Amino acid sequence: MTDGFTSPADRPASEARAERLRDEIRYHAQRYYALDAPEISDAAYDALVRELEAIEAAWPELVTTDSPTQRVGAPPSTQFAPVQHARRMYSLDNAMDLGELDAWLERVERETAGRPCAYACELKIDGSSIALTYEDGMLVRAATRGDGTTGEDVTINARTIKSVPLRLLVPPIGHVEVRGEVYMPKESFARLNAEQDEAGQPVFANPRNAAAGAVRQKDPAVTASRDLSAFMYQLADARALGIESQHAALMWLGEAGFRVNPDIKTCATSTDVHAFCEWALEVRNTLPYEIDGVVIKIDSFALHDELGFTAKAPRWAVAFKFPPEERTTILREIRVQVGRTGALTPVAEFDPVLVAGSTIARATLHNEDEIRRKGVLLGDTIVVRKAGDVIPEVVGPVERLRDGSEREWRMPAECPSCGGAVWREEDEVVPRCTNAGCPAQRLERLGHWASRGALDIDGMGSEIVSRLVEGGLLHDVADYYSLTFEQLVGVDLGRVKKDGTPQVLGETVAAKLLKSIDASRTRPLAKVLFGLGIRHVGSTVAEALAAAYGSLDDLLAASEEDLARVEQVGPKIAESVRAFADNPENVAIVRRLQTAGVSTAEERRAPERPQTLAGTTWVLTGGLERFTRDEAGSALKALGAKVAGSVSKKTSFVVAGSDAGSKLDRALELGVPVLTEADLIAVLDTGDLVSPGNAGDTPSGAAS
Ligand code: AMP
Ligand code: ZN
Ligand 1 test: best mutation among 91, 246, 295, most atoms within 8 Å of CB? Predict the structure, then answer.
C-alpha cells in the first residue's frame, strides 16, 4: 500500500512524496472531519499518515509546521460557534498489531524504570469525541474535538442525549470538564441507514460518521431523533479534584452520573494487557456498539506528568487498533430489487464469506451512481466488510485481479418485476417503477404494513404474504382485515413436507394470524401512517405528523402549506403526503381500513413531560405570586423532582419567595443554590434547569 516507499533513500524523492501525501491527507481529513463523508477506508487513511510519518522520521528537516502529522484532523466547519479548548484534546498514537503494542509497552517500562506501572485498559468506542463542561454541577457547554485546539459548540444538541447528565449527582464543585465519546448503537445505525435509503438520502459509512453528523445537526430535534448515547472516560483536570489515577477518574465519573463503559480493566503486566486486547477482539461483534480497538493508558497520573505529550498525542497512552475485518470474494450478479415505493435498488450477490462473525452473500449497492463511484464490474474480485459491524457493504474492486472477462453493469430500462417503465426524477439518485399495479411493489407494501415497525402483525412474514397474494386473497392493506379462518386454512405454503405432500397453513397458525391481525387494529396513529408507506414518510416523520394532527382524517385534509409547517416536515414531504391524499384509490383504502375498525385517530392524553428534574430535591420557602406552594410543588414533581420540607446537604435547590426566613438562611449556610420565582417559572416552562436562553441568569447561590 506504500508503493514500496517504506525506506526513503534519497531526499528529493522523499520531499516530493511527502508533499503529495500531505495534500492527499488534508483532502481526506476534510472529507472525514468536516464533511462526514469519507472516500477511503480508515485503514487506507491511516496508511497514508503512517507513510508520511515514516518519511518525516527519516528526514526530520522535512517536517513542516502545517504538516497533517503536526495536528489532529481538519479545521471544524463554520456552522457552530468555535470553542477554544482550555486543554488540548489530543489524538492517540496507534499500535496496528500486537508487535507494535509490545514495542510501546517496552518503551514505557524503560522510561518508567524501576517503578511499578499499572495499565488502565478500555474499549476504544468508535464514535465522536465530546468535551462537556459543568459549572457548579450544571452542564453549560458541550464541544466537539475539532482540530484539538478549537472545537465547535454543540451544547443544544448534546442536551438531547439522554446519557449526558444536565446536572451532576455529586455536590456542586465549581468548574469540571469531562471528555468522552458520543456514539450511535449498531441497531440505531442500521435503522437510520434504512430510513436514509428509503428517503433517497445518502447513507452513512459507519456509526462514527452517523454519530458525528447527528451531533452537528442544525436542528436539535434531529439530533434527538437519532438515538445517540455517550461513554465518558476522562476528566480534563482530574488532579484538581484530587484524583490521581485513571481508574479513580472512571469511578468518579460513574458516581457523578456519567455513563462509563463497564468493560474496563486495570492490568499489571503486558501479558494481562494482551489478554484484554484478545478478549476485546473476541467480544467485539457481540457488543451493541462499535469499537475499533483498545485504549491502553498508564494508570498513574503522576507518570502522565513525567511522560508528557508529543505534538499530537499523549506518550502515556496508545490505541491498539483492530485489524479491519475485510474479506475478498467474487461478485457474481447485481440484482435489482423493487421497493414498496417502486424504487429500484441494485443488490450485489457474491460468493458467501464470513465477515465479523456471520456469513454474508449480498449487500445493497444503493444506486447506479454508487456502483460507478466504486468502480465495480460483474465478475470482479471485491472487498467486502460490514459497515458498523452490521450492514454488509461492498468496499470496492481489487483491480489487479481482473482478467478481462469482467463486464459493466447497467440499470435495466424496465422494471424487473412487471416490465413497466422506469423513471428517474431529476433530483433523485434512484429510478422508480412507475406502474402502480406492479406486483413487486404490492408485495413490499403489504409486507411493510405487517412489519414490526408498522402495524406489527405477528406471524405475517413475507413468505405467507406472498402466498396470500398469489392465492388472490390480498391486494391491498385493507384486505388483511377481511381475511377469514376458512380462507387461511389450507393455503399452500409452497413447500413440501417430508412425505412429499405440500405443506399448507394449519388451523393453529390461521387462528394465531387472525388474532395478530385483530391486535393490529389498535396501533398508534404514527404506526398506521408509517404503515401506509407514503413516500418520504419514515417512522420519525410519521410520529411528527401524528402528533401534529391527531387523526388520519385531519391529516389527509391538511393543505400542503399547513403540512410543511410541521416540525421535521419539509415541502418535499408535504407534497408527497398531499399527493397520497389526492389519490382516490388511497382514500378508498383508508375508508375501508376505518370501516374494518382500524384505529386512525390518536387517543388524546395529556403528554407526560420528560423527567428532566429526576434526581433533584427542591425546597420551597416564602410566598410565591404566581402560584401556591402546593401548585409549584406539583409542577416540579411532574418533571420528576422531589420536594422536601426542610433544607439539608441533599437539597439541590431552594426557591425563595417573599419573606423567606430560616430556610433561606440555612440554604446560604450550606451553599445550596437559591432560585427566585422567576427562575422557577423558567425551569417549569422549559423543563430544564438551565434553559439555553438564560444560562447565565440562574443564580448559583453561594455554591462553589
Ligand atoms: P484517533 O481518532 O484514532 O486518533 O483516536 C483517538 C480518539 O479515540 C479519541 O479522540 C477519542 O475520541 C476516541 N476514543 C474512544 N474511546 C476512547 C477511550 N476509551 N479512551 C480514549 N479515547 C477514546
Ligand atoms: Zn414494476
Answer: 295
Give pLDDT, residue 67: 74
Q: Is residue 663 part of a domain?
A: yes
- Ligand 1 pocket member 129 (CB < 6 A): yes
Q: Is there a single domain that holds both residue 424 and residue 558?
A: no
- Residue 93: the pLDDT is 93
DSSP H or E run through 191 = helix 186-198
Residue 416 lies in a domain: yes
Per-residue pLDDT of 282-292, as tens digits, reads 999 899 999 99
C-alpha of residue 123 to centroid of ligand 1, in Å: 9
- Residue 87 domain-assigned? no
CB 157 within 8 A of CB 216: yes
> How many domains does the structure of the chain reveal?
6
Residues 425 and 448 in one domain: no
- Using DSSP bridges, classify how beta strands 119-125 and 291-298 pair: parallel, antiparallel or unpaired: antiparallel
Provide the pLDDT confidence category of residue 271 given band limits of 50, 70 and 90: very high
Domain end marker among 595, 628, 654 = 595
Q: What is the reported pTM?
A: 0.56
Same domain, yes or no, for 149 and 37? no
Q: Cα–Cα distance between 176 and 172 in angstroms, integer? A: 10
Q: Decide if pLDDT at 588 tops 50.
A: yes
Instruction: Report pLDDT for 3.
Output: 40
With a 6 Å cutoff on the Cβ, whether 291 touches ligand 1 is no
